[in-house]
Design brief:
It is a single chain. By secondary structure, the chain is mainly α. It has 14 helices and eight strands. It has a single domain, classed as Glycosyltransferase (Alpha/alpha barrel). β5 and β6 form a beta hairpin.
Length: 375
């Protein structure tokens, strides 16, 4: 259906586990190999591609990659639950499927290790997980994607099925961080109202960042999917938030490309640009929601339109015949106190590097592709 996508995925699968070409931050900063959310985005997408196509090459790649990180005793290379980083939980969501597929007990042990972090992770006064120990009392939209799908799936797989904690955390974010007039979510919230980047009355950051909204949206639909089928009331509470979230972001869709801007409500600001990763996340979330019956069939064309717009604008062949996916914001965050430039301002979000092939963009695009393949 999309041979250019298949060819692009083949390129990405030439990566080595210790320095994958999609982890641009590790390449640029010389980071040691460690369990991380960037690889998690990519490996999650390839595992879903295997489940969709049944092509063994995808599973073989994933197992080979993950086995570099997960040891026989269940310990994980570079992962320390006591760091209390929501980011570090993200990749562990793939372990449930790998354990089911391979029956290798080490994956089960690694699941239990990750869950110790969930059990002990520090929280804000409202009950939400801190984004990281180095970001005390702070909730970032990103963190809902990083931690909650693993948490929900653990409860379902282990027969616990008490989803109240996760649902309360999403509802807190909706109550506190959703702007009812603009219909968008602020990137961050400091419950202590002390951080230099926050409004001292509300605790909220200054602006709406596309990818953070994308993370949150994907976190919602994945959690809706993982909640046990007979828990319809819990699903409905998240579905209500999801529908309003989608309705809000679609108000800012670019008419021509069908994509969304890095700062979605400020399209006319100089330097603002159509951004790949957040747009891909929203495409995936919409397409999956249609498949699950959360959104009606009319949204399928909307999701596919976003996907096609990304491919048309940013998936290109260079003069050497090499495929690359552009338009990806490398990274954006808020603080900490020794990084004052990360202040949540318009200028800050537009100053971060725009790169090619980073998994924060490629992973969600492949996830959206798997949903198109399911149509």
């Amino acid at each position: 259906m999309y041979p250019i996508i298949d060819k692009y995925i083949e390129k990405l699968m030439t990566s080595n586990p210790n320095m994958p070409l999609w982890n641009i931050e590790s390449i640029l900063n010389g980071k040691k190999p460690a369990w991380n959310y960037i690889d998690g985005c990519m490996i999650t997408s390839l595992l879903e591609l295997y489940k969709t196509t049944k092509e063994e090459k995808y599973l073989n790649f994933v197992v080979n990659f993950v086995d570099y990180y997960v040891f026989d005793d269940g310990s994980i290379r570079g992962y320390d639950p006591l760091k209390y980083s929501t980011d570090d939980v993200c990749e562990s969501r793939i372990l449930f499927d790998l354990y089911k597929i391979t029956n290798n007990e080490k994956y089960n042990k690694a699941i239990e290790l990750t869950y110790t972090q969930v059990q002990n992770h520090p929280r804000t006064k409202e009950g939400n997980f801190w984004h990281k120990a180095i970001y005390p009392n702070q909730v970032w939209l990103d963190g809902l994607y990083m931690m909650q799908p693993f948490y929900i799936r653990y409860q379902t797989e282990r027969g616990i099925k008490d989803y109240s904690d996760t649902i309360n955390q999403f509802e807190n974010v909706y109550r506190i961080m959703f702007d009812k007039e603009k219909k968008l979510y602020y990137h961050g919230y400091d419950s202590s109202k002390q951080m230099f980047w926050c409004n001292k009355k509300t605790g909220l950051s200054k602006n709406f960042w596309l990818r953070s909204i994308g993370w949150y949206t994907v976190g919602l639909i994945d959690c809706i999917d993982y909640i046990a089928e007979d828990h319809t009331k819990e699903k409905e509470r998240l579905i209500k938030i999801f529908k309003e979230t989608i309705a809000g972001i679609l108000l800012y869709q670019d008419e021509e490309s069908k994509m969304f801007y890095q700062l979605p409500n400020l399209k006319d600001v100089k330097g603002n640009y159509l951004e790949t990763s957040g747009s891909s996340m929203i495409a995936y979330a919409i397409l999956k929601a249609v498949r699950l019956g959360v959104l009606d069939k009319t949204y399928q064309a909307i999701g596919k339109g976003i996907f096609d717009g990304i491919c048309k604008k940013y998936l290109s062949v260079n003069k050497d015949g090499d495929l690359n996916l552009g338009g990806i914001c490398l990274v954006a965050g808020l603080g900490p106190n020794d990084k004052l430039r990360r202040d949540g301002s318009v200028e800050y979000y537009l100053s971060e590097p725009i790169v090619e092939n980073d998994a924060k963009g490629t992973g969600p695009l492949i996830m959206a592709y798997t949903e198109i393949l399911k149509i």
